Amino acid sequence: MSPKVYADLTSLAKTKTKLANPPGFNPQSSSTSNASTHQRADDSALRASKAWEIAIAPGKSLPMQAFMAWMSGTSVSIFSILITGMILMTPAKGLLSVQQTFAPIERVKGAKVDLSMQKLVFVAINVAGILFGIYRLSIMGLLPTTTSDWLAFIPAKQHLEHSV
Amino acid sequence: MLARLALTALTLAACLPGARALFPDEAGRIDWYRAQIGAPTALIPHTHNHTALLYAATQRNVVAALRAADGQLAWRHVLDGPISAFSVRDARVLTQSGANHSHVHVWDAASGGLEWSFAQPAPGRGAVFVRDCADVIALAGDALVRLAPGSSEPAWELPLNRTAAYSRIVVHNDAVFAIGDAPQTRSAKRRLHVVQVDAATGALRKQYDTAEGIALRGGSVVVLESREYGAYMVWREPENIVWYVHRLGLTAPMWELYHAKLVEIELMPPDMLTSTIAELDIDAGLNDNTPRFSLSYSKDGKSKSVVVEMFRDGDRLEMRKVASFLADGSAIAASPRRSVVAVRPTDTGAAWRVRGGDKHAGDYTYARSAYGPVARAALVYVGDEPRVVVQTRSGQLAALRPGSSEPLWTRNEALGHAADMAFLTLPPPASAAEHAAKETDPSVQPSPVARYILRWVATGRALVEWVAAGFGIASGDRPALAPTEGDHFGFRKLAVFGASTGAVTAVSSQDGAHAWSHYLTHGRTPVRIERVFVTRSSQALSTDAPVIVAAGRARNATVVAAFDALTGRVLSEDTLPLVYARAFELPATDPATGQRLLGFAVAGAEPRVAVWPPTADAARALCAHTAPLYVELGDQAGSTAVHGYRVACADVTEPWLAAEPAWEFALPAGETLISATRYEHGAQHTALQGRVLGDRSVLYKYINPHLGVLATQRAAGGIAVYLIDRVSGRLLHSVVHEQAVVSRAHPFVATLSENRLVYQFWRGLPAGYVTAVAELFESDRPDTRNESPAVSSLDLQLPSVVMAAFVAPEAATALGTTRTGSSITTRDVLFGLASGKLLALPDALLDPRRPMGAPTKDEQAEGLVAYAAPLPLDPRRVLSHGHAVAGIAHVRSAPTHLESTALVAAFGLDVFFSRTSPSGLFDQLSPTFSKANLVITSLALVAGCLLGAPMVRRKLTTRAWA
Fold this sequence. Notes:
By secondary structure, chain A is mostly helical. Chain A has helices spanning 10-13, 27-31, 33-72, 78-96, 98-106, 116-139; strands spanning 107-108, 111-112, 158-159, 162-163.
């Protein structure tokens, strides 16, 4: 049994006291149905616009990443590895959090906006980022795409005869 | 927490054995070198500046001076051919040597420095000093010459016009006598021919025949030189008991003494018929006025040797006994004093007696089965103490002194005759716990996991004992390791040599410590050992001992002896009634002994392969091997065709298999074979099947274990090199070097490893020695290969060959390639140079793909450097450092347990062992690595964990309450 250390305010609800509107407030201006519809449309456009910004945001960082990649060179060093890692990880994280990224503007107070296109663009740009990262790995020679990468796994040939 | 602590402590404890692996005196010692002289053919004692020296001329064409006190070499020279004359006089040593020509050398006896030399374009037959001056009379071919120091021309030259096969020269006063076997004809019996020449002018004074029925060699005549009384020949008439003493130059009467009294007293007439006579003062300088010789006979189990000296009593020539020895098989030698020594074999080794002047006696206890019976002896005085130097038939020298049966020093000169050597990997040292476990339960199999656990147990016990002992510091005494004890790194192997003197010698590859020896004979003839094999390798704690097999020739038989490699005990000795053309390992094991089978290919009308062990079961075991077996014959020098045979396996009832002709590789007309090269054991193994190019494509290596390289001498000049397949006999590639010259002085040497052939030859000036490299690929196009996992030589494709030639730094007498456990490490090509250096050149320098100009980006990525014709003689790449390893005939390599490191051995005359890491010590800690830091860091981490754990616990509790 926890100690009763707070005031019981439930009685306040029962008073149902009608408070007066503040001076200068016109209830008509904020509760008409036309105004409400108009405001909802504006909100959707705003959110769509905001979503587009979010969708193309990764694309804006691509030139910078490309510049950093170019600066770090194609040799395998700690900097080029770090930068390539960043180039790969950032879009990968973006891809894994598509819903979370758009969630704040997709559904507000139960109103859902269709952001499929934005998401598609967002995914496409991140995929492009990953492709760029893979390209980086490729030109750094870190992708096992050539025969020499699999050379160690080639077994020695068996010779059907024996000579002494 | 406690479990973690215990685990950490145990991990640290596990590091302790590793830290104990190296002793201070082993640090940095990775090689050993032994200068050999070979088995002596003559030993001449001489004291110079109060230093007793023993001068030796040997079967390996070496003239050397050994210090009698410690057996060390005072000086040594390797001559250019067999030594035909050897004498010491007035602080000078005279040698005459050469095969098709002869060189007379006069050396300073103390320093070994060359005083002067003279060359003659004919084989040497003898040379002597002229008394009281430094001139030399030499006989080469058919020309008798007088040579003087400081003159490039002989004082005189006299052609002897082949009137006899001269082989002995005697100089007395103003006369030179050349003695030889007169040519035998139907009318004329065997006899000696003597030519007397004026020593001053070279004018022919007289020539005559004497000593009918006598030949110079064969123990029936001696030539004695007395400074005061002249030179004499003593002989016994064949099948008669009459002795003759002939004064050289005096033909009327022909003999001066007849029926020597002494001879009659010492030897009864029936004994006399079997007697032989031998010179004792092999160098006339030893004894100027009373020359000595020995008479020996052996009959009906009795034997006797009498040493006789000749002297003059007024006008009469007399003989008197110096000493007599009763024994068979004695070796008798004279000293500059009146004393003579006789060494006779006994059950425990040998017994020696000095008689004549001094009287001394002693024994030499040694195992005759290890070194063979006594072959030669020498008596030398260190101060007034006699030293008896005994040479056994296997080539061992031992110095003895009165009062001790243990030798003062020994030299195992059998190693100087080594024809083959095998590395045996020794089992790693087993811990006491492992031995205890093995003794408790002999069925314990030495699996790596079991051994690892046992090692931990042993380490734990050691740790407890160490703590109980109060953390004491171990004493600095290094436990003595037997040569047959291995190590964890595989550096300590057993190197087993087989020598042409019949000696099998096992030494440690780490330091050359002697493990065991055996003297292999067939009857009383030493077996000329040519091959040594490891037929059963060693395993830790295994009850099956590793086995070494030595095989060699003896008359018309082949002797094969198997030894317990750890003790030297003879397991079996078989005499196969055949003369083999080639001996090799077979790809099967004997079901009875678990040993690798050996094969002996026999040429002739019905070629066959004899199998060892010589049982039909062994032959059947070989036939159970499914792969068809091919063997080629006729690949020895001088051959004009090589024949391949397929071993037939029908109805095997004998320990041999018939060989059916499969192919013939006939050399082009006018060409004869110089040498044939195959892969040495394991040299064809490769870690990567291709070579990665700069653009990351792959050129696939052409790996064919049946590859054979034939080098031939062309009648039109130059040499040709053929690469053939030894299963199908197909020619894979050929190259002609038109300006190459191959001779005894400029040998052709080659080595084959993986897909690379390296060979060296003389190309004349100004090019000098040329090292050619051929690298074989499956195709010249990258990423193109025959994908089939199994290939047959019978439908094999031709390789694509990339070649390059370089200017070699020096003449090479042997080539080899380093070998590592998994062939991941790059291979160094090892050059055994004529100058005695063992040079290791890296793979990259000998790369035939080195670009002619500046390397492109891709070529740089491939690791190629721009081509430069000269191969550098970088002192840092000379493995032998300052040692001059004389007479390198074989360069061998063996892997260790560390992939980075290979053992390297060079032998022929001298023996040199080292180890090398072609790609650096990538799998070892660097010398600067701080183990202390590692331990401190580990302890700090443990302490950090201990300190941090309560804090972390407190924080977690606080967070839970929040």
